[in-house]
Amino acid sequence: MKRAIVFGATGGIGSSICEDLAKDGWSLYLHTNSKWNKAYEKATKLANEYPSQDFLPIKLDFNSSDAELKKFVDGLIPVNAVIFAQGITDYNFVGTQKMTMMDKIININLTVPIKLTHLLEDKLVKQEFSRIIYLGSVYGGQGSAMEAVYSATKAGLSRFSQAYAREVVSTNLTVNVLAPGAVDTPMNAMFSEETIAEVTDEIPIGRFASGKDISYWVKVILNPQSGYLTGQTIYISGGWLL
């Protein structure tokens, strides 16, 4: 049975990834930190729709200690794929942004995903085929004012993925980044309708991406036939900021 863990499974993109992978025959760990009821309800819904597969909600705070991260990974059933769909931002100038928030963004978006990759490697390389996908951002390619630290973390994921892919290239583990542009998720709900309209006008395809626009590419990379693709950052931006 092919099994994946989706970190950030209750987010806008993570939820779409779970739905599409379940439809594609995957059993799933649905990770959350603070939205346990939502993860549990999602897992129950998918289990009813796909009774021959397993759907397990799991909780992990990305601010956990290294020992707690290891305990979490040690408790997992072996998986074929890991999708890091979690992430946070803080729309602020570097000069006024709180340093505690900087630490939080770097930890959740970059540091802990790298640590979890280290801990999960042994489980992944033992599989017939395995995949790691990080959700980056178009801002990892072109930094965004007011989101400088966020942009740095997403750029860091691309360079880490490129380097780490070369370390494990002799195994059946591939490592890639999917970098969305503007996506219609709760993370963007902070912006006014006017701002959203202005951004939409800048996107050649003329709309924000949906979660399904991103989850489609997750399915493509998780296909066993995609094994020649590794160390890449794929921009899913509707032609925006290229």
TrEMBL record:
PROSITE patterns: ADH_SHORT
Domain of life: Bacteria
Pfam families: adh_short
InterPro entries listed in its UniProt record: NAD(P)-bd_dom_sf, Sc_DH/Rdtase_CS, SDR, SDR_fam
Classification via PANTHER family: 3-OXOACYL-(ACYL-CARRIER-PROTEIN) REDUCTASE, 3-OXOACYL-[ACYL-CARRIER-PROTEIN] REDUCTASE FABG
Entry similarity comment: Belongs to the short-chain dehydrogenases/reductases (SDR) family.
Protein known as: 3-oxoacyl-[acyl-carrier-protein] reductase
